[in-house]
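Subject: sequence -> structure tokens, single chain

Hey, anyone have a minute? Need the predicted structure for the following. Not urgent.
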Amino acid sequence: MKKREKLAIIHQYYPNAITTIDSINKVIDFVEEVLDLEPSQVMMADSICSDDVNSIQYPIRASEFLGPFKMGGLDGFPFTGLTGMKAVSSHIPSKGAVFVYYGPHIGVAKNGKIGEIHRNGITDNSDCCGAATGALNSLSNNLIKPNEITEIDYQMNTIEQILLKEKEQIINATIPIKEATEVIYEAIDKRINELIEMTEFNCKYIILMGTIHINSDKDMGSFSSVKRFDLIDLTTNERKDLAATYFSV
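Reply:
Had a minute. Here:
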């Protein structure tokens, strides 16, 4: 299947999506041509779901960066918290940068069905993201209790609480799983920016890339619907929104 045919399937739901390979290529070009750095001067930190499909489908070229430091748990929420972000900051080359790639993920199967994918070795399609789908099912069946977060299932309970705050918005949406993913994105984006504000960095730049990370069938690969691409210049404390410049379609 040609790339344009794959993108046509994904664009039914995410019109600005590009392949994750292309998104990483764009970031590396930006690092080299605009920031005048080598990828080996950049620490990558990702806050994406711990689902194995993300390890399978993530571009090999991302290994040109240092790391990655893994910040994300279920559906990409940065469960490593402030301690994790401070650890990231201490691993960055002093004259380099940190690249934070974050966001929830969702499946779009080759048959066009959203919320599921065909995984390696599995006969039938399966949920993607399974945690978001499970939380959505609990939300729809009124099984989530306000402020109920247990030690045994802390991450799932946190995802449930995020959805519970926007219950009507999600339940009444045309595609509830897509809306739930958007709600989780906003929670992740808010938390990442809070962690950045609370952390001291001794490097030159912070690159923030917030996306809806889209998985598909094993022969389709993954895609990125970029919602934020910010550059923070720590020498001037200037922050630029560059998403329209580098990721508009």
